[in-house]
Amino acid sequence: MKCDVCGLEITDEHCFTQTARNGVLVAYHSGRDCCTVDRLLGRLEPEQPSENAVLEDLLDGIRELWQRKGADYTRGSEDRLANFRRNAESLGLDMRQVWAVYASKHWDAIMTWVKNGQVESEHIEGRLYDIATYALLGILIAREQNK
């Protein structure tokens, strides 16, 4: 069975579970809630989420990634660019150069998906969230260097 919203095949390996949210059963798979159980079972027509709801969902994904991975890379610092500073200094590079290397590995995976229709290591949505997060980090670097 496939998810009506994201098209992901629903299997045991995707940790399909159910929970109640405001009285509505919601299906979870790959850690994302995207449609009601009734819709998954074909009892209801798929709802078309509003443009704002879609944007909020995407921003929530970026926010979650920002918080989860940021904690590892900043080593407890409040400075979101601590990892870039530390590696730039130790390698004698500019933060932009370090940022470009980190971001390019995700871009390479995205280009593999564009060319082959799939990636091997991580679902493409994760890579797209990664590159969106790196774009935000790039904005912070640009702002700092343009002061």
What do you see in this structure?
The protein has two domains: 1-47, no CATH class; 51-145, no CATH class. The chain is 56% helix and 11% strand. It is built from five helices and three strands, in the order βββααααα. It has helices at residues 37-40, 51-74, 82-91, 95-116, 124-145, and strands spanning 17-21, 24-29, 32-36. It has a three-stranded antiparallel β-sheet with strand order 1-2-3. Helix 2 packs across helix 5, helix 3 crosses helix 4 and helix 4 (95-116) runs antiparallel to helix 5 (124-145). The longest helix is centred in the middle third of the chain and has 24 residues, at 51-74. It starts with 16 loop residues before the first strand and ends with a helix. Mean pLDDT is 76; it is low at 12-33 and 36-40.
Overall tally of domains: 2
The ordered H/E elements are: EEEHHHHH
The count of helical stretches stands at: 5
Radius of gyration: 19 Å
Q: Please state the oligomeric state of the protein chains shown.
A: single chain
- Uncertain regions: pLDDT < 50 for 5+ in a row? 12-33, 36-40
Quote the average pLDDT. 76
What's the total number of strands?
3
Portion in helices: 55-70%
Largest sheet: 3 strands, antiparallel
What is the first-to-last residue Cα distance?
Answer: 53 Å
How are strands sequenced across the largest beta sheet?
Answer: 1-2-3
Shape: globular
| Helix/sheet category | mainly alpha
Strand content: 5-15%
